[in-house]
């Protein structure tokens, strides 16, 4: 207690409110006494504006997790590994489904998809038991298994940047206390029972590499520990069926968070996701709000109104790249704390709206913009150049790319079926001085520039740079993305 009193006295001395006449020491309760603090009263009558204020906080905070749980509920309805709408991998709980090529441009499962890798997807309920994750030998190919908890934070370090070796790894939940079975190379602990995994396996845009990658893809699998026998299993993903309806790209990403259903689903989040240190009081306030809404239809009506308004204002604003991450130079922003958010609620929610399922900063850095060098919205009625000076393409150990997205952060089909340019493209033409110019326009810049052409859609669009396994200049922010120059 003496240390606490001294520390508080020092704090008081630094404030203008210190009372010189005060002679008695001021003390605070011992930490465990906080457990006895009053909780929100279930009988209090809350006015409309208070309800809406707390409801808005809850919506902003809970948006990523409700998003996650709703994706899991939908994806795991698949009776077997398949392609939903013929485009997106889906699988039963505990299993995994893989693409064998780039993701199709019509998909709407997730915004800002990547056409540099073959994707996979699996969701898990770790309260049902551990999951075995197979890692084949990828050789020199870049790969990473991004494993996420319910908060969309990445857990574990599984991939080429970490020197992960081929073998079997165990994904376990927060309550697992078992022994590591023989033949398991490592254990990945999730702080939540909900988890999902998105393998990303780099693939060059050539027929030869499309063929070469298939042997590895067949051995990318996950399954319950009860099925583990120490032998590498395989699955022929090239033969999995299409199920479900094809998506409608004109509507944008699937609406994973529905405002008038949000507070029914938030209760599940509060029960399934343990609070981080310091979040206990916030959990108590949100539980109180949900309980009040369950009891009083008028309170619930106010909560739903707040959710709807917050979705149209706060959440919608995160679709603008200037509201994501931090400035990166030349009019671009870059990711901040991606998939390693902690209590960075701002960037967690922004990412879940604009580009869900980032990789961690040491795996990938993202640079994005809606505007050209004059801070004017990019638009298909104009033509642009993006020039990387000699030696200034993104410095990476993995790969880099420049991707174009439409106003819904999705792809717009084009005559070349081309949506990104970068490491995967072996026919890029460099300028005589060693610089690299990429052309962004609706119409071809000419046959001599066609290899460097990124077709643009009608209407507004954005540009997005990925830098996988960045060098020091990427990680410390000294590398800046190039200017986007309007040419006509």
UniProtKB/TrEMBL annotation:
Residues 1-21 form the signal peptide. Residues 94-224 form the DUF1254 domain. InterPro entries: DUF1214, DUF1214_C_sf, DUF1254, DUF1254_sf. Gene3D superfamilies: Domain of unknown function DUF1214, C-terminal domain, Domain of unknown function DUF1254. This is DUF1254 domain-containing protein. Pfam families: DUF1214 (PF06742), DUF1254 (PF06863). It comes from the Bacteria. Residues 363-471 form the DUF1214 domain.
